[in-house]
Design a protein that fits this description.
Number of helices: 16
Helix content: 40-55%
Structural class: alpha/beta
Number of strands: 11
Shape: globular
Mean pLDDT: 84
Strand order of the largest sheet: 1-9-8-7-10-11
Oligomer: single chain
Length: about 500
């Protein structure tokens, strides 16, 4: 009996010791994973850092590129296209009165908007929006089929939201037409019969497209004409100017990104033969293509770029836009999974799938305020099939923060660059209009952007820059363009 008790005691002691050893082993292993992951993250954070001096380097480089591109078309020397997109007067909020219609074509969706403008700085009324998907057979058919489809849908929309009898007399009214597209779409991949792009005001191809659209409108009984095909950022700028005469620029921060601003005709010497001698013009910067040695890029950014469909192009967009933020996070997490076993001994297969992490999901994880990062846990499981530890979830949230902070602060530096180019930092109030889901729905991104402008300019000067969300919602800029072409209908 005594012998059995001794054996049992020894066995129990051995079991306890084994459990203790296993606990120590797992603790050491977890600590090692933590240290390796932290080492990778600290290095990544250093390379992504955007202190104020770095932001000023980026802003100054952008100003230099803007000025060089306005005076020369040498693509080897400039990364910004700086297209003169619009030469008509922008709305002033006083003279525009009546019912106006606008169209925004975004990839395979057609957004139609209309509203009644009251003039004299009164708010708009009777705002209607309708978004439809263009059938795939139309998107992949002939250009004429697409024009006819657009014209028929516009005719139906106008019939559903008609003008008042006293407004109908304004025959030949203009139809605002804006384009939303990703840069890749302009080059090849959409399958559309038309390669949409951002046209300059004197672009022959753009003028021919306008003629074809207007023929289709006339064919289907629409008594309106398109005056200009412009990027929707230009439309947002027109909307901002309608509400505030101090609006000088508009930024799109969504899946893609672009910026447009108001400059003088004299500043665009590259286009002097086709521009009026004086007055305001709207420049579409196509700033997604901006590049500079001062941009804080990492090896993960370089590999993303080299494996993209447009290597060496759209570098700024790949750092700040919603299309790429989640992908950068995913690549860093893959490195941690491979080199630090962040998610276990094997790399989760779905984590290796490019672009599986979308920016809305990244934002949800980043903005998770629960005690154990429960939203992070749910998203990792839902998207990648990962069962995560609290330590891993904390690291994921920190990686999201690093990527978001860099992107937002670089966008802020771009805003300061525009204001500096216009010479308005110290002396004049400037309103910047921002449109896009990244800015509208990603609170932390928005806060980082605002704080970067404040840090660069300081308390006193930053008060001169007012950043506002766009008016009327996405795509509504088209109707403000129509109004600018038809004052006092």
């Amino acid at each position: 009996m005594k012998k059995e008790v001794v054996v049992a005691t020894v066995t129990t002691t051995a079991a306890v010791a084994m459990v203790a050893l296993l606990r120590q082993y797992w603790k050491q292993k977890t600590n090692l994973q933590w240290k390796r992951s932290q080492r990778i993250m600290r290095k990544f954070a250093r390379e992504c850092a955007t202190p104020v001096p770095k932001l000023w380097q980026v802003a100054n480089a952008m100003v230099a590129d803007m000025e060089a591109s306005l005076s020369s078309s040498d693509e080897a020397a400039n990364t910004l296209n700086m297209l003169v997109s619009y030469v008509s007067p922008l709305p002033n909020g006083i003279n525009e009165k009546g019912m106006y219609y606008g169209v925004n074509l975004r990839e395979s969706n057609l957004l139609m908007v209309c509203a009644r403008l009251e003039g004299k700085n009164e708010p708009i009324s009777d705002l209607y929006r309708e978004e439809i998907s263009v059938p795939s057979n139309v998107m992949h058919g002939t250009s004429q089929e697409l024009y006819d489809y657009i014209a028929v849908e516009i005719a139906r929309f106008i019939l559903a939201h008609p003008e008042n009898s006293d407004e109908i007399a304004a025959n030949g009214k203009k139809l605002g037409f804006t384009l939303s597209y990703e840069e890749e779409q302009a080059t090849a991949s959409s399958g559309s019969p038309i390669k949409w792009k951002n046209f300059s005001a004197d672009d022959a191809e753009g003028k021919e497209l306008i003629k074809e659209i207007n023929r289709a409108l006339e064919k289907h009984g629409v008594n309106m004409r398109v005056y200009a095909l412009v990027d929707d950022t230009v439309g947002n700028l027109a909307g901002g100017r309608y509400y505030n005469k101090d609006t000088v620029a508009a930024i799109t921060l969504g899946m893609g990104t672009n910026a447009s601003y108001v400059d003088t005709a004299q500043s665009a010497t590259r286009w002097q033969d086709s521009l009026p001698k004086k007055g305001e013009i709207v420049i579409s910067m196509e700033w997604g293509n901006f590049n500079s040695c001062h941009l804080p890029r990492t090896q993960d950014d370089a590999s993303l770029d080299s494996e993209s469909s447009n290597p060496g192009r759209q570098i700024f967009q790949k750092l700040i836009s919603g299309m790429y933020l989640g992908e950068i996070v995913r690549r860093v997490l893959v490195k941690m999974a491979q080199e630090a076993a962040l998610f276990g001994q094997s790399v989760p297969p779905k984590l290796l799938i490019p672009y599986l992490l979308r920016s809305p999901d990244m934002a949800a994880m980043h903005q998770d305020t629960s005690e154990d990062h429960e939203v992070v846990n749910e998203k990792l499981k839902e998207i990648f099939g990962i069962t995560s530890t609290p330590m891993a979830r904390e690291i994921v949230a920190e990686v999201c923060d690093i990527v978001t902070e860099r992107g937002a602060r670089l966008a802020g530096a771009g805003i300061v660059a525009i204001i500096k180019k216009l010479g308005r930092i110290a002396s004049r109030r400037s309103v910047i209009i921002i449109e896009g889901g990244l800015y509208e729905h990603y609170r932390i991104f928005r806060n980082y952007l605002h704080s970067s402008v404040w840090e660069m300019l300081g308390n006193e000067l930053s008060d001169n820059i007012i950043i506002e969300h766009s008016h009327g919602g996405s795509g509504a800029g088209a109707l403000f363009l129509a109004a600018s072409q038809n004052p006092s209908s």
